[in-house]
Design goal:
Structural class: mainly alpha
Largest sheet: none
Low-confidence stretches: none
Order of helices and strands: HHHH
Strand content: under 5%
Shape: elongated
Number of helices: 4
Helix content: 55-70%
Number of strands: 0
Mean pLDDT: 84
Length: 102
């Protein structure tokens, strides 16, 4: 009779979920991210001021209308910067901002 080799029983490890690179933004965090991006690029000082004011207003009264308008204007500007191939303005960043408005 031949000896049967027994393999050690190993438990399967649970698979890890890979986190996607796309960030999920709320309207407030999206506005903060846009503000940081505009400051880093040193463009649109009026929009930067509007975003800062709208963020303060949103934090006070919770009304997102001003932020939504500012995000809409910023998306147009960021798309123009992306067309110029400005470093740091990615398509994934713009699409994640567009998802906030929908």
């Amino acid at each position: 009779m031949a000896k049967a080799t027994s393999k050690p029983v190993t438990e399967k490890k649970p698979t890890k979920k890979v986190a996607s690179k796309a960030k999920l933004y709320t309207i407030e965090t999206a506005s903060e991210a846009i503000l940081e991006k505009l400051k880093a690029l040193s463009i649109e000082p009026q929009l930067q001021a509007d975003l800062e004011w709208c963020l303060g207003s949103y934090r006070y009264d919770g009304n997102p209308v001003g932020l939504a308008d500012a995000i809409t204007r910023a998306i147009g500007i960021l798309k123009a910067e992306q067309a110029k191939k400005t470093k740091g303005v990615t398509a994934s960043f713009i699409t994640s901002l567009e998802k906030v408005l929908s």
